[in-house]
Amino acid sequence: MLLVKDFEDYEILGMSNGEKLERWKDYYLLRPDPEIIWKDKIDKNIAHAHYHRSNKGGGYWEKKKPLPDRWTVNYKNLTFNVKLMGFKHTGIFPEQSINWDFMMNKIEEEKKKTNKPVKVLNLFAYTGCASVACLSKDAEVTHVDSSRGMIDWAKENVKSSGLENKKIRFLVDDCVKFVKREIRRGNKYDAIIMDPPSYGRGSKNEIWDIEKDLFNLVELCMEILEEEPLFFIINSYTAGLSPIVIENILKMKLKDKKGTITSGELGIKSKNGLILPCGVYARYEK
User: Global pTM?
Assistant: First the structure.
């Protein structure tokens, strides 16, 4: 398991009975997490907001102390906007900072070796934290998500990090359809990132099912990947989907490439030393 480190603006203060108490810079949030099946003592009174699940699905935020509609957190030289979203989210998955470091290091090393642009495709790109990380090392980024709201948020993150003059294009599109069009156009990428949901809808109500569609999408991506790709990362939060399953897909489709494929879990260590599992990953690297 790879553990988050060096994220000074974020920490888990405690975990108990299906909930985690987090510090996001100067504000404290209490959010549910199904992995937390143990009981411990946490100080819920310091929380500025508490997300309550509903037995009927979804839930709501209860603001317990004054809290702005948005604020920023920093990870190293990157700045991201935090907002309280429906279904407990904040727009940032701190465990992904492990992958941000990986991407930034690989891009920086490659540019030193070749002095050529590194072209990155970010699919299911959400609020663009990975896009910002790649931009910070002067990669040329194509950011694709089916939600206009998420694209706008990603633009805010790029601007907050002072990277609005870097090369990035934003597309509100269905990821599968976009890749098919890129194949027809003959466009190629040095690196691909994808963080597909378990289920979802494209920009025109296209249905996405990770169990049915992930392999086919990775297969399509092989046609837009450069002959010697820099990296290919797949993240997943789908319950029951083993990292080995994702690793197997990359092994099958990238078997002719000269690189290394690894997989595993991402995690965050809380202040009391307990570790919270936070999804899985598989990645190919040159």
Answer: 0.95
Tokens of 20: 């985690």
Query: What CA–CA distance (Å, rounded) separates 3 from 277?
Result: 9
What's the burial of 6, exposed, middle or buried (CB within 10 Å: 0-12/13-18/19+)?
Answer: exposed
132-165 pLDDT, tens digit per residue, is 999 999 999 999 999 999 999 999 999 999 999 9
pLDDT (tens digit, 9 = 90+) per residue, 260-277? 999 999 999 999 999 999
Rounded-to-integer distance, Cα 33 and Cα 59, Å: 13
What does the block give as tokens for 158?
A: 């790029």
> How does DSSP assign the chain, residue by residue?
-EE--S-TTEEEEEEETTEEEEEETTEEEEEE-TT--S-----GGG-SEEEEE-TTS-EEEEE-S---SEEEEEETTEEEEEE--STT--S--GGGHHHHHHHHHHHHHHHHHH-S--EEEEES-TT-HHHHHHHTTT-EEEEEES-HHHHHHHHHHHHHTT-TTS-EEEEES-HHHHHHHHHHHT--BSEEEE---SEEE-TT--EEEHHHHHHHHHHHHGGGB-SS-SEEEEEE--TT--HHHHHHHHHHHSTTSSSEEEEEEEEEE-TTS-EEEEEEEEEEE-
- Say if residues 209 and 238 touch (Cβ distance below 8 Å): no
Please report where in the chains the tokens 């980024």 appear, as a residue. Answer: 141
